[in-house]
Protein backbone atom coordinates (compact mmCIF):
# COMPACT_ATOMS: atom_id res chain seq x y z
CA UNK A 1 0.00 0.00 0.00
CA UNK A 2 2.78 2.32 0.84
CA UNK A 3 4.44 1.42 -2.50
CA UNK A 4 1.19 2.06 -4.40
CA UNK A 5 0.91 5.51 -2.82
CA UNK A 6 4.50 6.26 -3.78
CA UNK A 7 3.77 5.29 -7.42
CA UNK A 8 0.74 7.60 -7.52
CA UNK A 9 2.86 10.48 -6.21
CA UNK A 10 5.51 9.87 -8.89
CA UNK A 11 2.82 9.82 -11.59
CA UNK A 12 1.25 13.04 -10.25
CA UNK A 13 4.65 14.73 -10.23
CA UNK A 14 5.28 13.73 -13.84
CA UNK A 15 1.85 15.02 -14.80
CA UNK A 16 2.49 18.33 -13.06
CA UNK A 17 5.83 18.63 -14.86
CA UNK A 18 4.05 18.11 -18.18
CA UNK A 19 1.57 20.85 -17.28
CA UNK A 20 4.40 23.15 -16.28
CA UNK A 21 6.18 22.48 -19.56
CA UNK A 22 2.97 23.14 -21.48
CA UNK A 23 2.34 26.35 -19.59
CA UNK A 24 5.96 27.39 -20.06
CA UNK A 25 5.77 26.67 -23.77
CA UNK A 26 2.57 28.69 -24.04
CA UNK A 27 4.18 31.54 -22.11
CA UNK A 28 7.28 31.50 -24.31
CA UNK A 29 5.13 31.42 -27.46
CA UNK A 30 3.07 34.36 -26.24
CA UNK A 31 6.27 36.22 -25.37
CA UNK A 32 7.73 35.57 -28.82
CA UNK A 33 4.52 36.69 -30.50
CA UNK A 34 4.53 39.82 -28.37
CA UNK A 35 8.00 40.64 -29.69
CA UNK A 36 6.64 40.68 -33.23
CA UNK A 37 3.73 42.71 -34.48
CA UNK A 38 1.12 41.75 -36.99
CA UNK A 39 2.66 41.80 -40.47
CA UNK A 40 0.93 42.62 -43.76
CA UNK A 41 1.54 41.55 -47.34
CA UNK A 42 0.31 44.04 -49.92
CA UNK A 43 -0.23 43.40 -53.61
CA UNK A 44 -1.69 45.34 -56.50
CA UNK A 45 -3.24 43.95 -59.64
CA UNK A 46 -2.38 44.74 -63.23
CA UNK A 47 -5.91 46.07 -63.66
CA UNK A 48 -5.16 48.75 -61.05
CA UNK A 49 -1.84 49.69 -62.65
CA UNK A 50 0.46 48.00 -65.14
CA UNK A 51 3.64 48.72 -63.15
CA UNK A 52 6.36 48.21 -62.17
CA UNK A 53 5.89 50.95 -59.60
CA UNK A 54 8.02 53.06 -57.28
CA UNK A 55 6.69 54.92 -54.28
CA UNK A 56 5.88 54.99 -50.61
CA UNK A 57 3.64 52.15 -49.44
CA UNK A 58 1.68 53.09 -46.34
CA UNK A 59 -0.50 51.10 -43.97
CA UNK A 60 -3.03 52.99 -41.85
CA UNK A 61 -4.75 51.63 -38.74
CA UNK A 62 -7.67 53.55 -37.28
CA UNK A 63 -10.06 53.17 -34.39
CA UNK A 64 -12.34 55.89 -35.80
CA UNK A 65 -15.08 54.74 -38.21
CA UNK A 66 -15.98 58.33 -39.12
CA UNK A 67 -13.80 58.48 -42.25
CA UNK A 68 -11.41 56.39 -44.32
CA UNK A 69 -8.17 55.77 -42.42
CA UNK A 70 -6.12 57.54 -45.11
CA UNK A 71 -7.87 60.80 -44.19
CA UNK A 72 -7.07 60.55 -40.47
CA UNK A 73 -3.28 61.01 -40.40
CA UNK A 74 -1.95 64.36 -39.22
CA UNK A 75 0.38 66.10 -36.76
CA UNK A 76 -2.20 66.55 -34.00
CA UNK A 77 -3.06 64.35 -31.01
CA UNK A 78 -6.09 63.08 -32.96
CA UNK A 79 -3.94 61.30 -35.55
CA UNK A 80 -4.49 57.62 -36.20
CA UNK A 81 -1.58 55.19 -36.86
CA UNK A 82 0.53 54.93 -40.01
CA UNK A 83 3.49 52.80 -41.12
CA UNK A 84 5.50 53.33 -44.28
CA UNK A 85 8.08 51.58 -46.46
CA UNK A 86 9.64 52.60 -49.78
CA UNK A 87 9.14 50.32 -52.79
CA UNK A 88 11.19 50.27 -56.00
CA UNK A 89 10.34 48.36 -59.15
CA UNK A 90 7.29 46.75 -57.52
CA UNK A 91 5.59 44.42 -59.98
CA UNK A 92 1.91 43.56 -60.17
CA UNK A 93 1.03 40.47 -58.17
CA UNK A 94 4.22 40.54 -56.09
CA UNK A 95 3.87 41.02 -52.34
CA UNK A 96 5.48 43.87 -50.45
CA UNK A 97 5.73 43.28 -46.72
CA UNK A 98 4.97 45.80 -43.99
CA UNK A 99 6.20 44.50 -40.64
CA UNK A 100 8.08 45.59 -37.52
CA UNK A 101 10.76 47.25 -39.64
CA UNK A 102 8.36 49.83 -41.11
CA UNK A 103 8.69 53.36 -39.76
CA UNK A 104 5.63 54.26 -37.71
CA UNK A 105 3.81 57.25 -36.28
CA UNK A 106 2.60 57.93 -33.65
CA UNK A 107 3.19 54.28 -32.69
CA UNK A 108 6.81 53.52 -33.57
CA UNK A 109 6.49 49.87 -34.64
CA UNK A 110 3.79 47.36 -35.49
CA UNK A 111 4.87 45.31 -32.48
CA UNK A 112 3.82 48.24 -30.29
CA UNK A 113 0.26 48.41 -31.63
CA UNK A 114 -2.18 47.56 -28.82
CA UNK A 115 -4.35 44.51 -29.52
CA UNK A 116 -7.85 45.38 -30.67
CA UNK A 117 -10.21 46.15 -33.52
CA UNK A 118 -8.92 48.44 -36.26
CA UNK A 119 -10.07 49.81 -39.61
CA UNK A 120 -7.21 49.04 -41.98
CA UNK A 121 -6.26 50.60 -45.32
CA UNK A 122 -3.16 50.67 -47.52
CA UNK A 123 -2.06 53.45 -49.91
CA UNK A 124 0.71 53.66 -52.49
CA UNK A 125 1.98 57.19 -53.06
CA UNK A 126 3.50 56.77 -56.52
CA UNK A 127 6.89 58.16 -57.49
CA UNK A 128 8.10 59.30 -60.88
CA UNK A 129 11.74 59.13 -62.00
CA UNK A 130 13.16 62.57 -62.83
CA UNK A 131 16.28 62.81 -65.00
CA UNK A 132 17.18 66.36 -64.13
CA UNK A 133 19.01 68.68 -66.45
CA UNK A 134 22.13 68.58 -64.27
CA UNK A 135 22.34 64.77 -64.54
CA UNK A 136 20.82 64.03 -61.12
CA UNK A 137 18.28 61.20 -61.03
CA UNK A 138 15.65 61.22 -58.26
CA UNK A 139 12.34 59.50 -57.62
CA UNK A 140 9.60 61.77 -56.31
CA UNK A 141 5.84 62.14 -56.24
CA UNK A 142 4.70 64.60 -58.90
CA UNK A 143 1.74 66.67 -57.84
CA UNK A 144 -1.42 65.74 -59.73
CA UNK A 145 -3.45 68.86 -59.02
CA UNK A 146 -4.14 68.05 -55.36
CA UNK A 147 -1.37 70.01 -53.65
CA UNK A 148 0.95 67.13 -52.65
CA UNK A 149 -1.60 65.33 -50.48
CA UNK A 150 -0.78 61.63 -50.78
CA UNK A 151 -4.17 60.54 -49.45
CA UNK A 152 -6.11 62.19 -52.31
CA UNK A 153 -3.54 62.37 -55.12
CA UNK A 154 -4.98 61.17 -58.46
CA UNK A 155 -3.36 57.97 -59.69
CA UNK A 156 -2.37 56.73 -56.25
CA UNK A 157 -3.50 53.20 -55.40
CA UNK A 158 -5.61 52.42 -52.34
CA UNK A 159 -7.24 49.38 -50.78
CA UNK A 160 -10.79 49.07 -49.57
CA UNK A 161 -11.21 49.64 -45.84
CA UNK A 162 -11.33 46.45 -43.76
CA UNK A 163 -12.11 45.92 -40.10
CA UNK A 164 -9.60 43.57 -38.49
CA UNK A 165 -8.72 42.27 -35.06
CA UNK A 166 -4.99 42.80 -34.52
CA UNK A 167 -3.37 40.67 -31.83
CA UNK A 168 0.29 40.54 -32.80
CA UNK A 169 2.23 37.82 -34.55
CA UNK A 170 0.44 35.16 -36.54
CA UNK A 171 0.13 34.77 -40.29
CA UNK A 172 0.53 37.95 -42.42
CA UNK A 173 -2.66 39.73 -43.40
CA UNK A 174 -3.16 39.96 -47.16
CA UNK A 175 -4.20 43.36 -48.57
CA UNK A 176 -4.94 44.22 -52.20
CA UNK A 177 -4.66 47.68 -53.74
CA UNK A 178 -7.65 47.58 -56.06
CA UNK A 179 -8.74 51.22 -56.31
CA UNK A 180 -7.20 54.18 -58.16
CA UNK A 181 -7.84 57.73 -56.96
CA UNK A 182 -9.59 59.54 -59.85
CA UNK A 183 -8.44 62.77 -61.54
CA UNK A 184 -9.45 66.19 -60.20
CA UNK A 185 -11.43 68.32 -62.69
CA UNK A 186 -9.74 71.56 -63.72
CA UNK A 187 -11.42 74.74 -62.42
CA UNK A 188 -13.54 76.73 -64.86
CA UNK A 189 -13.43 80.45 -65.55
CA UNK A 190 -16.18 82.65 -64.14
CA UNK A 191 -16.94 86.35 -64.51
CA UNK A 192 -14.54 87.21 -61.71
CA UNK A 193 -12.16 84.26 -61.41
CA UNK A 194 -9.93 83.49 -64.40
CA UNK A 195 -7.13 80.99 -64.85
CA UNK A 196 -3.82 80.77 -66.64
CA UNK A 197 -1.32 77.94 -67.12
CA UNK A 198 2.08 78.12 -68.79
CA UNK A 199 4.93 75.71 -69.37
CA UNK A 200 8.02 77.13 -67.70
CA UNK A 201 11.16 77.01 -69.81
CA UNK A 202 13.39 77.38 -66.76
CA UNK A 203 11.71 74.66 -64.68
CA UNK A 204 11.39 72.28 -67.62
CA UNK A 205 15.13 72.54 -68.21
CA UNK A 206 15.89 71.92 -64.53
CA UNK A 207 13.57 68.92 -64.03
CA UNK A 208 14.13 67.31 -67.44
CA UNK A 209 10.41 67.05 -68.20
CA UNK A 210 7.59 69.52 -68.90
CA UNK A 211 6.86 71.61 -65.81
CA UNK A 212 4.04 74.10 -65.46
CA UNK A 213 3.05 77.14 -63.46
CA UNK A 214 -0.53 78.27 -63.13
CA UNK A 215 -2.56 80.84 -61.26
CA UNK A 216 -6.09 81.80 -60.34
CA UNK A 217 -6.73 85.51 -60.92
CA UNK A 218 -9.50 87.50 -59.28
CA UNK A 219 -10.33 90.24 -61.79
CA UNK A 220 -12.14 93.42 -60.76
CA UNK A 221 -15.71 94.48 -61.36
CA UNK A 222 -15.95 95.98 -64.85
CA UNK A 223 -12.85 94.18 -66.11
CA UNK A 224 -14.41 93.24 -69.45
CA UNK A 225 -16.24 96.56 -69.81
CA UNK A 226 -13.07 98.68 -69.41
CA UNK A 227 -10.50 97.34 -71.88
CA UNK A 228 -8.48 100.56 -71.58
CA UNK A 229 -7.77 100.04 -67.88
CA UNK A 230 -4.47 98.73 -66.57
CA UNK A 231 -4.43 97.32 -63.06
CA UNK A 232 -2.11 97.01 -60.05
CA UNK A 233 -1.24 93.41 -59.21
CA UNK A 234 -1.18 91.81 -55.77
CA UNK A 235 0.08 88.29 -55.15
CA UNK A 236 -1.63 86.46 -52.31
CA UNK A 237 1.07 83.94 -51.36
CA UNK A 238 0.13 80.79 -49.50
CA UNK A 239 -0.38 77.07 -49.78
CA UNK A 240 -1.82 75.34 -52.81
CA UNK A 241 -5.41 76.14 -53.70
CA UNK A 242 -7.10 74.38 -56.61
CA UNK A 243 -8.99 77.61 -57.28
CA UNK A 244 -9.24 81.13 -55.88
CA UNK A 245 -10.41 80.73 -52.31
CA UNK A 246 -12.56 82.95 -50.09
CA UNK A 247 -14.74 84.48 -52.83
CA UNK A 248 -18.41 83.51 -53.13
CA UNK A 249 -20.97 85.09 -55.46
CA UNK A 250 -24.00 83.59 -53.73
CA UNK A 251 -25.28 83.77 -50.13
CA UNK A 252 -24.35 80.94 -47.74
CA UNK A 253 -25.99 77.60 -48.39
CA UNK A 254 -29.07 77.43 -46.10
CA UNK A 255 -28.83 73.64 -46.04
CA UNK A 256 -25.16 73.55 -45.10
CA UNK A 257 -24.48 71.05 -42.34
CA UNK A 258 -22.54 72.96 -39.67
CA UNK A 259 -19.05 71.75 -38.88
CA UNK A 260 -17.13 72.36 -35.67
CA UNK A 261 -13.66 73.93 -35.93
CA UNK A 262 -11.22 72.34 -33.48
CA UNK A 263 -8.69 75.03 -34.32
CA UNK A 264 -10.92 77.97 -33.46
CA UNK A 265 -13.35 76.23 -31.07
CA UNK A 266 -16.27 77.46 -33.15
CA UNK A 267 -19.43 75.64 -34.16
CA UNK A 268 -20.55 76.10 -37.76
CA UNK A 269 -17.22 77.53 -38.91
CA UNK A 270 -17.90 76.35 -42.46
CA UNK A 271 -20.90 78.68 -42.54
CA UNK A 272 -18.79 81.54 -41.22
CA UNK A 273 -16.37 80.95 -44.10
CA UNK A 274 -19.20 81.11 -46.61
CA UNK A 275 -20.61 84.26 -45.02
CA UNK A 276 -17.25 86.04 -45.11
CA UNK A 277 -16.59 84.91 -48.69
CA UNK A 278 -19.94 86.37 -49.75
CA UNK A 279 -19.21 89.62 -47.91
CA UNK A 280 -15.91 89.86 -49.76
CA UNK A 281 -17.71 89.41 -53.09
CA UNK A 282 -20.04 92.31 -52.27
CA UNK A 283 -17.12 94.47 -51.15
CA UNK A 284 -15.03 93.56 -54.22
CA UNK A 285 -17.81 94.49 -56.62
CA UNK A 286 -18.87 97.61 -54.72
CA UNK A 287 -18.74 101.02 -56.40
CA UNK A 288 -16.02 102.43 -54.14
CA UNK A 289 -13.64 99.48 -54.03
CA UNK A 290 -10.41 100.07 -56.01
CA UNK A 291 -9.96 97.89 -59.09
CA UNK A 292 -6.95 95.59 -59.04
CA UNK A 293 -5.82 92.04 -59.82
CA UNK A 294 -5.30 89.52 -57.02
CA UNK A 295 -3.25 86.47 -57.99
CA UNK A 296 -3.09 83.07 -56.29
CA UNK A 297 -0.10 81.23 -57.75
CA UNK A 298 -0.17 77.45 -58.07
CA UNK A 299 3.38 76.11 -57.89
CA UNK A 300 3.07 72.66 -56.32
CA UNK A 301 6.18 70.65 -57.11
CA UNK A 302 7.73 67.20 -56.48
CA UNK A 303 8.54 68.11 -52.86
CA UNK A 304 5.64 70.20 -51.55
CA UNK A 305 2.44 72.06 -52.25
CA UNK A 306 4.39 75.17 -53.19
CA UNK A 307 7.96 76.17 -53.96
CA UNK A 308 8.46 79.05 -51.51
CA UNK A 309 8.72 81.23 -54.64
CA UNK A 310 12.54 81.35 -54.65
CA UNK A 311 15.35 79.69 -56.58
CA UNK A 312 16.57 76.52 -54.89
CA UNK A 313 19.25 73.87 -55.42
CA UNK A 314 16.70 71.08 -54.99
CA UNK A 315 13.51 72.57 -56.44
CA UNK A 316 14.99 74.63 -59.23
CA UNK A 317 14.55 78.26 -60.30
CA UNK A 318 10.98 78.79 -59.16
CA UNK A 319 11.70 82.37 -58.13
CA UNK A 320 12.88 83.41 -61.58
CA UNK A 321 10.21 81.32 -63.30
CA UNK A 322 7.47 83.13 -61.38
CA UNK A 323 9.00 86.60 -61.75
CA UNK A 324 10.12 86.43 -65.37
CA UNK A 325 7.72 83.95 -66.96
CA UNK A 326 4.42 83.67 -65.06
CA UNK A 327 3.89 87.25 -63.88
CA UNK A 328 4.61 88.84 -67.28
CA UNK A 329 2.18 86.35 -68.87
CA UNK A 330 -0.50 87.28 -66.30
CA UNK A 331 0.03 91.01 -66.73
CA UNK A 332 -0.09 90.70 -70.49
CA UNK A 333 -3.29 88.65 -70.58
CA UNK A 334 -5.07 90.48 -67.76
CA UNK A 335 -3.78 93.99 -68.42
CA UNK A 336 -1.56 94.54 -65.42
CA UNK A 337 0.44 97.75 -65.16
CA UNK A 338 3.55 95.59 -65.11
CA UNK A 339 5.85 97.86 -63.10
CA UNK A 340 7.30 97.44 -59.62
CA UNK A 341 5.52 100.45 -58.09
CA UNK A 342 2.17 98.76 -58.87
CA UNK A 343 2.99 95.28 -57.53
CA UNK A 344 2.45 94.15 -53.95
CA UNK A 345 2.46 90.88 -52.09
CA UNK A 346 0.95 89.48 -48.91
CA UNK A 347 0.32 86.16 -47.25
CA UNK A 348 0.46 84.19 -44.03
CA UNK A 349 2.67 81.41 -42.65
CA UNK A 350 4.43 79.90 -45.68
CA UNK A 351 2.88 82.74 -47.65
CA UNK A 352 4.20 85.24 -45.10
CA UNK A 353 7.75 84.00 -45.62
CA UNK A 354 7.27 84.12 -49.38
CA UNK A 355 5.83 87.63 -49.31
CA UNK A 356 8.88 88.91 -47.44
CA UNK A 357 11.38 86.78 -49.38
CA UNK A 358 10.31 87.88 -52.85
CA UNK A 359 10.36 91.51 -51.69
CA UNK A 360 13.95 91.01 -50.51
CA UNK A 361 15.19 88.88 -53.42
CA UNK A 362 13.43 91.01 -56.05
CA UNK A 363 13.43 94.41 -54.29
CA UNK A 364 12.65 96.51 -57.37
CA UNK A 365 9.81 94.29 -58.56
CA UNK A 366 7.48 94.99 -55.60
CA UNK A 367 6.37 98.10 -53.75
CA UNK A 368 5.45 96.45 -50.46
CA UNK A 369 5.08 93.15 -48.66
CA UNK A 370 2.71 92.29 -45.83
CA UNK A 371 4.04 89.18 -44.11
CA UNK A 372 1.78 87.59 -41.52
CA UNK A 373 3.02 84.88 -39.14
CA UNK A 374 5.92 84.13 -41.50
CA UNK A 375 7.83 80.85 -41.40
CA UNK A 376 11.18 81.37 -39.63
CA UNK A 377 12.85 84.52 -40.99
CA UNK A 378 15.90 84.19 -38.73
CA UNK A 379 17.39 80.72 -38.26
CA UNK A 380 18.63 81.60 -34.80
CA UNK A 381 14.94 80.96 -34.08
CA UNK A 382 14.01 78.16 -36.44
CA UNK A 383 10.73 77.73 -34.59
CA UNK A 384 12.37 77.30 -31.14
CA UNK A 385 15.67 75.87 -32.43
CA UNK A 386 18.90 77.81 -32.88
CA UNK A 387 20.38 76.10 -35.90
CA UNK A 388 23.72 77.81 -35.42
CA UNK A 389 24.29 77.20 -31.71
CA UNK A 390 22.16 74.22 -30.66
CA UNK A 391 23.57 70.73 -31.11
CA UNK A 392 20.24 68.95 -31.28
CA UNK A 393 16.93 69.98 -32.86
CA UNK A 394 14.80 67.65 -30.74
CA UNK A 395 16.03 68.33 -27.22
CA UNK A 396 17.12 71.18 -25.00
CA UNK A 397 20.32 69.77 -23.57
CA UNK A 398 21.05 70.36 -19.88
CA UNK A 399 23.82 69.28 -17.58
CA UNK A 400 22.10 66.05 -16.62
CA UNK A 401 18.86 65.86 -18.59
CA UNK A 402 17.28 66.48 -21.97
CA UNK A 403 13.98 68.31 -22.43
CA UNK A 404 11.90 67.48 -25.51
CA UNK A 405 11.30 70.52 -27.71
CA UNK A 406 7.66 71.24 -28.63
CA UNK A 407 6.77 71.85 -32.27
CA UNK A 408 3.14 72.89 -31.88
CA UNK A 409 1.19 74.48 -29.02
CA UNK A 410 -1.92 76.45 -28.18
CA UNK A 411 -1.86 79.95 -26.72
CA UNK A 412 -2.00 78.49 -23.21
CA UNK A 413 1.18 76.53 -23.82
CA UNK A 414 -0.26 73.04 -24.23
CA UNK A 415 2.04 70.97 -26.47
CA UNK A 416 0.32 69.10 -29.30
CA UNK A 417 3.41 67.45 -30.81
CA UNK A 418 7.16 67.55 -30.18
CA UNK A 419 9.76 68.27 -32.84
CA UNK A 420 10.95 64.66 -32.64
CA UNK A 421 7.41 63.34 -33.11
CA UNK A 422 6.83 65.72 -36.00
CA UNK A 423 9.84 64.29 -37.79
CA UNK A 424 8.75 60.72 -37.05
CA UNK A 425 5.48 61.64 -38.73
CA UNK A 426 7.39 62.81 -41.79
CA UNK A 427 9.61 59.72 -41.86
CA UNK A 428 6.53 57.50 -41.90
CA UNK A 429 5.32 59.35 -45.00
CA UNK A 430 8.63 59.23 -46.86
CA UNK A 431 12.40 58.93 -46.63
CA UNK A 432 14.98 61.17 -48.39
CA UNK A 433 12.88 64.23 -47.58
CA UNK A 434 9.90 62.95 -49.57
CA UNK A 435 7.14 63.31 -46.99
CA UNK A 436 5.62 66.39 -48.60
CA UNK A 437 5.52 67.98 -45.14
CA UNK A 438 6.95 71.01 -43.37
CA UNK A 439 10.44 70.13 -42.13
CA UNK A 440 11.19 68.30 -45.37
CA UNK A 441 10.27 71.24 -47.58
CA UNK A 442 12.32 73.61 -45.46
CA UNK A 443 15.42 71.49 -46.01
CA UNK A 444 14.56 71.05 -49.70
CA UNK A 445 14.21 74.80 -50.31
CA UNK A 446 16.92 76.12 -48.01
CA UNK A 447 19.52 73.35 -48.24
CA UNK A 448 22.13 72.12 -50.71
CA UNK A 449 21.75 68.97 -52.76
CA UNK A 450 23.07 65.86 -51.02
CA UNK A 451 25.38 63.27 -52.54
CA UNK A 452 22.40 61.01 -53.30
CA UNK A 453 20.64 63.77 -55.26
CA UNK A 454 18.08 64.44 -52.54
CA UNK A 455 18.19 67.42 -50.14
CA UNK A 456 21.05 67.38 -47.65
CA UNK A 457 19.42 67.10 -44.20
CA UNK A 458 19.82 70.00 -41.80
CA UNK A 459 19.59 67.49 -38.95
CA UNK A 460 19.33 63.74 -38.53
CA UNK A 461 15.59 63.05 -38.54
CA UNK A 462 16.05 60.03 -36.26
CA UNK A 463 18.34 61.60 -33.62
CA UNK A 464 17.95 65.37 -34.09
CA UNK A 465 21.70 66.02 -34.41
CA UNK A 466 22.19 69.30 -36.34
CA UNK A 467 24.63 69.55 -39.27
CA UNK A 468 26.16 72.99 -38.73
CA UNK A 469 27.89 73.00 -42.10
CA UNK A 470 24.48 72.77 -43.75
CA UNK A 471 23.20 75.44 -41.36
CA UNK A 472 25.85 77.83 -42.68
CA UNK A 473 24.56 77.21 -46.22
CA UNK A 474 21.07 78.08 -44.98
CA UNK A 475 22.38 81.25 -43.33
CA UNK A 476 24.07 82.47 -46.49
CA UNK A 477 21.17 81.80 -48.84
CA UNK A 478 17.81 81.94 -47.02
CA UNK A 479 18.14 83.46 -43.53
CA UNK A 480 16.22 86.64 -44.36
CA UNK A 481 17.40 88.57 -41.31
CA UNK A 482 21.02 87.67 -42.02
CA UNK A 483 20.66 88.66 -45.68
CA UNK A 484 19.23 92.04 -44.72
CA UNK A 485 21.84 92.61 -42.02
CA UNK A 486 24.77 91.87 -44.33
CA UNK A 487 23.36 93.73 -47.34
CA UNK A 488 21.47 96.66 -45.86
CA UNK A 489 23.74 99.22 -47.50
CA UNK A 490 22.52 98.14 -50.92
CA UNK A 491 19.10 96.64 -50.04
CA UNK A 492 17.98 99.28 -47.55
CA UNK A 493 17.35 102.05 -50.10
CA UNK A 494 15.33 99.64 -52.22
CA UNK A 495 13.22 98.35 -49.30
CA UNK A 496 12.49 101.55 -47.41
CA UNK A 497 8.81 101.56 -46.41
CA UNK A 498 8.11 98.16 -47.96
CA UNK A 499 8.44 95.72 -45.04
CA UNK A 500 5.40 94.98 -42.86
CA UNK A 501 5.39 91.99 -40.49
CA UNK A 502 2.61 90.70 -38.22
CA UNK A 503 2.63 87.81 -35.75
CA UNK A 504 0.87 86.66 -32.60
CA UNK A 505 2.77 86.59 -29.33
CA UNK A 506 1.62 82.98 -28.91
CA UNK A 507 2.07 81.67 -32.43
CA UNK A 508 1.24 77.98 -32.61
CA UNK A 509 4.58 77.12 -34.23
CA UNK A 510 6.76 79.61 -32.30
CA UNK A 511 7.13 81.81 -35.38
CA UNK A 512 7.07 84.91 -33.20
CA UNK A 513 10.57 84.04 -31.96
CA UNK A 514 12.23 84.83 -35.29
CA UNK A 515 10.13 87.98 -35.74
CA UNK A 516 11.51 89.35 -32.46
CA UNK A 517 15.04 89.03 -33.87
CA UNK A 518 14.08 90.58 -37.20
CA UNK A 519 12.31 93.40 -35.35
CA UNK A 520 15.45 94.14 -33.33
CA UNK A 521 17.47 94.45 -36.51
CA UNK A 522 14.93 96.55 -38.38
CA UNK A 523 14.67 99.01 -35.49
CA UNK A 524 18.45 99.45 -35.62
CA UNK A 525 18.58 100.31 -39.33
CA UNK A 526 19.84 103.70 -40.43
CA UNK A 527 20.62 105.36 -43.73
CA UNK A 528 17.87 104.54 -44.38
CA UNK A 529 15.65 103.41 -41.54
CA UNK A 530 13.43 100.61 -42.79
CA UNK A 531 10.27 102.71 -42.50
CA UNK A 532 7.80 99.82 -42.22
CA UNK A 533 6.07 98.18 -39.27
CA UNK A 534 6.26 95.09 -37.07
CA UNK A 535 3.14 94.40 -34.98
CA UNK A 536 2.24 91.69 -32.45
CA UNK A 537 -1.14 90.25 -31.54
CA UNK A 538 -1.73 89.68 -27.81
CA UNK A 539 -2.76 86.10 -26.96
CA UNK A 540 -2.90 85.45 -30.71
CA UNK A 541 -2.10 82.05 -32.17
CA UNK A 542 -1.19 81.19 -35.74
CA UNK A 543 -1.79 83.08 -38.01
CA UNK A 544 -2.34 86.64 -36.74
CA UNK A 545 -2.19 89.18 -39.56
CA UNK A 546 -2.48 92.59 -37.97
CA UNK A 547 -6.16 92.84 -37.06
CA UNK A 548 -6.53 93.99 -33.43
CA UNK A 549 -10.32 93.98 -33.56
CA UNK A 550 -11.20 90.45 -34.70
CA UNK A 551 -9.96 86.99 -33.68
CA UNK A 552 -7.92 84.86 -36.08
CA UNK A 553 -10.98 82.86 -37.06
CA UNK A 554 -12.28 85.94 -38.87
CA UNK A 555 -9.19 88.00 -39.68
CA UNK A 556 -7.60 85.13 -41.62
CA UNK A 557 -10.51 85.44 -44.05
CA UNK A 558 -9.83 89.16 -44.71
CA UNK A 559 -6.36 89.24 -46.29
CA UNK A 560 -7.72 90.60 -49.55
CA UNK A 561 -9.22 93.70 -47.95
CA UNK A 562 -7.21 94.53 -44.83
CA UNK A 563 -4.08 95.94 -46.54
CA UNK A 564 -5.86 97.81 -49.35
CA UNK A 565 -5.66 101.27 -47.76
CA UNK A 566 -1.93 100.88 -47.12
CA UNK A 567 -1.39 99.71 -50.70
CA UNK A 568 -3.28 102.70 -52.12
CA UNK A 569 -1.38 105.11 -49.90
CA UNK A 570 1.94 103.58 -50.91
CA UNK A 571 1.19 103.85 -54.62
CA UNK A 572 0.06 107.45 -54.30
CA UNK A 573 3.31 108.39 -52.54
CA UNK A 574 5.79 106.44 -54.69
CA UNK A 575 4.36 106.21 -58.24
CA UNK A 576 6.83 107.70 -60.75
CA UNK A 577 5.91 110.78 -62.80
CA UNK A 578 3.36 109.96 -65.47
CA UNK A 579 2.33 106.68 -63.81
CA UNK A 580 -1.18 105.40 -64.44
CA UNK A 581 -3.11 106.19 -61.27
CA UNK A 582 -6.48 106.70 -62.90
CA UNK A 583 -7.45 104.11 -65.53
CA UNK A 584 -8.14 101.51 -62.84
CA UNK A 585 -10.07 103.90 -60.56
CA UNK A 586 -13.32 103.83 -62.55
Describe this structure in words.
By secondary structure, the chain is an alpha+beta fold. It folds into 3 domains: 36-180, Immunoglobulin-like, CATH 2.60.40; 193-251 and 273-378 and 480-497 and 561-574, Rossmann fold; 381-475, no CATH class. The chain has 13 helices and 26 strands. The protein has helices at residues 2-35, 201-207, 269-284, 318-333, 350-361, 419-429, 438-446, 468-478, 480-495, 512-524, 552-555, 559-562, 564-574; strands at 40-44, 53-62, 81-90, 96-98, 103-105, 116-126, 128-131, 137-140, 157-158, 162-166, 173-177, 179-180, 193-199, 212-218, 233-237, 293-298, 311-312, 316-317, 343-348, 369-372, 395-397, 402-404, 406-409, 415-418, 499-504, 533-537. An 8-stranded mixed beta sheet has the order 13-14-16-15-19-20-25-26. Strands 2, 3, 5, 6, 9, 10 and 12 form a 7-stranded antiparallel beta sheet that branches. A 3-stranded mixed beta sheet has the order 4-1-11, with no helix packed on it. The longest helix has 34 residues, at 2-35.
Q: What would CATH call the class of the largest domain?
A: Alpha Beta
Low-confidence sequence ranges: 1-16, 18-34
The beta-strand count equals: 26
Q: What kind of sheet is the major sheet?
A: 8 strands, mixed
N- to C-terminal separation? Answer: 122 Å
Report strand %: 15-25%
Give the strand line-up of the largest sheet. 13-14-16-15-19-20-25-26
Nearest-integer average pLDDT:
93
| Envelope shape | globular
Number of domains: 3
In DSSP terms, counting alpha (H) and pi (I) runs of 4 or more, how many helices?
13
Helix residue percentage: 25-40%
Structural class determined from secondary elements: alpha+beta
CATH topology of the largest domain: Rossmann fold
Q: What is the alpha-carbon Rg in Å?
A: 28 Å
CATH architecture type of the largest domain: 3-Layer(aba) Sandwich
Amino acid sequence: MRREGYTRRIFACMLNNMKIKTLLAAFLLAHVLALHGQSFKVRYTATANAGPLDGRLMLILSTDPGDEPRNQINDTPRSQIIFGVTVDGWKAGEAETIDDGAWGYPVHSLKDVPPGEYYVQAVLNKYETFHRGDGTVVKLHMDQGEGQHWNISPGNLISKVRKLHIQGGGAPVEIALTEVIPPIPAPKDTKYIRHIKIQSERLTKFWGRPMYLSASILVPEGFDEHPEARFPLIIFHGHFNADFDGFRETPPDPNLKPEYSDRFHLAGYNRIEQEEAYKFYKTWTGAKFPRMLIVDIQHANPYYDDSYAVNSANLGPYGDAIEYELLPAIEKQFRGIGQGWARFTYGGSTGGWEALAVQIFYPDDYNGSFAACPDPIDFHAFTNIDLYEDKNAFFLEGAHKRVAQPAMRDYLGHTFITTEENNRYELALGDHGRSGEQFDIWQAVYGPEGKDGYPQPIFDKATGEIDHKVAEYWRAHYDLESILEHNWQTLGPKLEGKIHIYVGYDDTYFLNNAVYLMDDFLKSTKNPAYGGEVLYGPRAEHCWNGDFNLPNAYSRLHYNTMYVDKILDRMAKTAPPGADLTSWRY
